[in-house]
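Page 37, top half.
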Amino acid sequence: MDTRARTIEHYHSATGRPDLDDPRVRRLVWRSFERTVGPWVPADRSARILDAGCGEGALLTWLRDKGYANLHGFDLSPECVALCHRLELPFVRPFDLLRIAEWPEDGYDVIFLMDVVEHLPKERAAEVLEAARTKLRPGGCLIIQTPNLGSLVGTFVAHSDLTHEFGLTEKSVRDLLALAGFPREEWRSAPPGTS
């Protein structure tokens, strides 16, 4: 098994990520979500939301705690899926984002790609984003968070995970969105330093 596959199989423990069972960690993560994605989530608590590459389920747990009930998620790591189930997110399934075109559901109001685009092979990134776009309802929203390699912190983060395949700047993420068919006039971005 190669390094990438080994890391993915045990992603949480292999990367030493903090555990949401710790109330201090949960408070910190929740504050971060309030600041970074809070302004972007729909007001309608019945909105269909997919967290693609949901990791340990932090975002889904935060959304559930905020009253969102129509949640869906998947992750490639068996360990992360098991952690989601432990957090009482039984709907989270094992699935590979590279195959999102085969995901059996669509019509999502929001799809989150939080810190996952950089894990994709660069050659497939536009294809994956284009397929994710087809899973949105008309007027739906794709929310992407990825390290900004145009900053010093982003450069550090880009090299802090053995499964990162490539990095993006504000310009290259816009180029990628254009290649994936997202109309430029519909793009919105968060100010630097908010994520």
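Page 37, bottom half:
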Amino acid sequence: MSEEMSINVEETVEPSSESVFRYLGYGSSLPSAPVLRKLRELGPKVPALVQSMTLCRICSVNEVTDLCSKALPAPIQGASFLAFGLVTVGAAIEQEAKRLRETGRLLDSVILNALGSATVSELCEQTAYRVFGWAEERGLNVSRAFEPGSGASRWPLDNQHLIFANLRAEQIGVELTSHLLMRPHNTLSFLMGIGTEIEQASAPFSCQGCQRTDCQYRYEPSGSSP
């Protein structure tokens, strides 16, 4: 069996201040007063630039295209089901950030890019929690989300091919380039394992397990499991 979820999110996706600060490279520190002023100025403009789209497919491992079980992350090699996820906030926000950069408004461009990254990250987390709910309704466990190329996932970037082979990315206007980059820029992909043999994750996304403990973008929600 398989289940596909493709939705155009109508409600506003609002990232937390902490998430935006992290994408600006401040870690757990507070930005300077000028940056905070710019955030207050640019933040309200983000909803008009965002088109939140998600695509999620949950299917039996027997229905997966181009699957080599050994290529899966070790914690989910015994999964009965796999959840493929793809989320984007569209191209408008990166286009506006580019316009600001080209007109000399570099700080505005950097901050708008951080707002875009934080927004798509929040959307991705919402989508992953939908998978948590799907599994819970069926009495199954679900793993954390594994992102191709992520340091915490330690799952090679070329596994983007597996995700895109099992989703119709064109439905939400996303494409994978020959260099394994996703377009639009503010797009994220992930894979989760589901089944009775899977260890239940406490949260879908965490940098726990990544060896770059000094990374300014590090994110470890309380109680998260690797």
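Margin note: Confidence is low (pLDDT under 50) at residues 6-10.
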